[in-house]
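This part of the workshop introduces the protein records we will be handling. Backbone structure tokens are a discrete shorthand for how the chain folds in space. Once this layout is familiar, the rest of the handout is easier to follow. The record below serves as our worked example for the rest of this section.
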Amino acid sequence: MEGSLTRTRQNSGQLQQNARDGLRMGLWMAAIYSVVATAIMLGAGLATKLTLWEYLGVVAAYFVSGLAGGATAGALKPLSGSWTGTALTGVAVGASVFLAMGTTMFGLPWRWGVDAWRAYGLSVLVVSPIAALYYRHRMDKTFTRMG
């Protein structure tokens, strides 16, 4: 009994550490995407067409998405031991990331048309798992070279 309680504490501690690592990664990704989005908006001349609140809304969407995606990736890290788990984690993370992107492009989800929902579904169900598997493949190669 005592061994299982210790294991539960270790698992809980590891889950919290994974979530913290995921949040940290999500914040970094959000910061990078916000800088890239700002550069794209400036380059496309959109910065002059957006109000300050609209711009801040776009940046906030990236940060909310980054935090949600990072926490999800961290919490689901134990699944990343298999290719299937990695792909499923990609779908879960992609759901929040592409929701934020869709919101910045198409407005609030309940106002989306059929084409926006198709783009969202395709992104979440196809692009996200492929991106997660590619990321895992790159990490596997990186750690193999280091070892």
Remarks:
- Residues 2-43 form the longest helix (42 residues).
- The radius of gyration is 18 Å.
- The helical segments are 2-43, 52-75, 83-106, 114-146.
